[in-house]
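Researcher: I'm preparing a figure for a lab meeting and need a structural model of a single chain. I don't have an experimental structure, so a prediction will have to do for now. The sequence is pasted below. Please return the structure as tokens so I can convert it later.
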Amino acid sequence: MVGLFLQSFAQNSIAKEWNEELLEAIRNDFARPTVHARNLFHISAAMYDAWAVYEPDADTYFLNKNVHGFKISFGPIPTPIDVKAAQEKAISYAAYRLIDHRFQNAPFYNLIKNSIDFQMEQLGYNIENTSLDYGCGSAELGNYIAKSIIDFGMQDGANELDQYVNRYYEPINPPLKVEDSGNPSIVDLNRWQPLEFSVFVDQSGNPTGNNVPEFLSPEWGSVIPFSLKESDASVYQRNDFDYVVYHDPGPPAYLEDSDSSGITNPYKWGNALVAIWSSHLDPSDTTQWDISPGALGNISNYPSNIEELPNFYNLLEGGDIGQGHELNPFTGMPYEPNVVKRSDYARILAEFWADGPDSETPPGHWFTILNKVNEHPDLEKKFMGTGPELDDLEWDIKSYFILGGAMHDVAITAWGIKGWYDYVRPVSAIRGMAEFGQGSDPNLPSYHVNGLPLIPGWIELIESGDPLQGSSGQHTGKIKVKAWRGPNYIINPAIDVAGVGWIRAEDWWPYQRPSFVTPPFAGYVSGHSTYSRAAAEVLTAMTGDPFFPGGVGEFECIQNQFLVFEDGPTEDITLQWATYRDASDQCSLSRIWGGIHPPVDDIPGRLIGEKIGKEAFNFALPYFSKEPDVPLSITSNFYPNPTNCGVTIEYQHSGDLGIEVYQLHGKLILEQILNFRDGKAFLSLSKYGSGIFVFVIRDIEGKVAYQEKVVVVE
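Model: Understood. Here is the structure written out token by token.
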């Protein structure tokens, strides 16, 4: 079967070409997922407007709109002889100007500039044309769109004028010196702790010059969103700053929430699970798993609270409750087994999903996945899976616009939560609890209520005679964990592996580079979980199919070539996913095996991502069908909108009244007499499927008195 990532297919809309330029620019910039989610959205929206302004049935997002109080004026433009050529030129100039502006301070700006200059040259466009007079042509229109969005970005709450630096946030904990043992200086084991390095290199491989990296974007909740609603926001104050938190999940598990001993404390259980899953990363471990879609994935129910988490994850063996899919719906056949070492699988996940195969950050990674989906020959480019096939340009423009909006809203939501709850990372928690001792049995040595829980075979006391006791027994009574041994055991990552063994818990490392260790921002909630689930919902809705084209998506990892943190994998391995949601769930697990998140960070991110993905998709739909200019002399209200079964219609009328329902392309699908009681009537839409429908109410003379679009979703 042809794999999603294993083969490329010709598909070269101008929007895709510029999206690839943007992704390459991200790879050549600092690893800033919030900043790049915003870049992906703004540049996707710029390309969308440059396309939509020439489409009679599409509505613009920025042009001639008031976006959260920022008005971008726009007047008439001449109708071009060649509409597609005009769209392509406007898209190119808009994308070119925005990429050039947004990445001017990137560490590899010269590479970025040379690439986009060459792209314009190949297209035959003159980059010296900087006119904003959009009445003169599509090049000028593209320049105007870019300039307008640049101006919008200077006041959208991202603090772009000052290089996105934090204005109010200050960490409560002093830095953890990761190259030293333990965590003796931490003040609060529930709050985020900066890390101190001899040299810090970000996840894209860029030295930053700051060896104690600051919290990235703790105030990002204040950035102007795409589809997030003010009614879903809570506002909290700390240090004279209002932290805006959308979709507030409530607090995570805190260490002092329970004085219970051992694993029953959710904070202890979650971090112990991270330490135990670290023991799965030994390439000499012969444990084998079937990682095919027939064995993994297909999860329909997720924990709704912290107490349910232990029933979802396998504490000792790893993985979750997914049981796989019985059949590939594309072939009608069972998925073939894909049996590999668990250690290879876990290490690959930790690296593959970290920031994308080529360091395009998590939101960019999902654009890469989208591009591969869009290239696949089995994909029918029917919007929401119905209607006529769209051409490549329209499909790409719409899919980028929706996915960009969703990724931007995820960044605002997840980092708003991160900034407010300011939650600890496992490296700080595990080392910090190890400072206290063991927290399971008051009758054993080194007991402290806030110590690590003892789990025989994985987390134990160092006793006299243990190889870890030290030359003079100075470490006797401390805690040891069976875990990945860390970067100190790797001299040359191209040929060395750290392996797994008993180490002192005070020396525990995440499975990451020693110059990075863990992302420079709080853990709760997981950005990876939130980005991935939102993207999965967008791709599911856009294609009208939860499954990857052909029923499977794949990514090949070559033996001893794919891994970067250490040598591996030990054999060629192909990652596989049946559905977009399966890929999202796999991404979430990768952060646990990577030592980055405990489960309490993960599940709320998945649940919030699902909401955001659906909200962003439904919010975007009306832009694809412009409201006609119909005089509305009578007010009405249709709710809920979007709906999944029917609508209640409030109208200034009593008795019987005729209503007509049309599909977007104008086909009349329903003409019915409704009986209004107290000004209300209900109309079922369940048998018409998903889509956008136009409701028309006529007056007694047969003239249109009211018209409304209603979005029906599955």
